[in-house]
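Title: Prediction job returns without error message
Component: structure pipeline
Severity: low
Priority: P3
Assignee: unassigned

Description:
Job completed but the reporter wants confirmation the result is attached to the right record. Sequence as submitted:
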Amino acid sequence: QVQLVESGGGLVQAGGSLRLSCAASGRTFSSKGMGWFRQAPGKEREIVAAVNWSGSSPYYADSVKGRFTISRDNAKNMVYLQMNSLKPEDTAVYYCAASRGDAWYVRLNQYDYWGQGTQVTVSS
């Protein structure tokens, strides 16, 4: 069992930055692929970024490439999402997710554990 708690969301102006954090419980965290998803009002939840158990070769959605960086610290059971050059279209609830596998994954049904989400609002 893995429990995930996100933090770091908030209101920021376009062009600004935020760093989201995801604290994970459970001794098996370091063996799990992790992902960040987001869901805007009226839209489906979508993948933003994902990372394998070691943190190498992360995946990014095209919409955030070059602006967002996913990282993890297995010693601290933490996953981060550094978001730079934020745009109004990045406004959404952001969710941290953990998979049973050790690779990175892009589909929602490949993740078994979810956090409660943190709101990110980018004003123009």
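Comment from assignee: result matches the submitted record. The longest strand covers residues 18-24.
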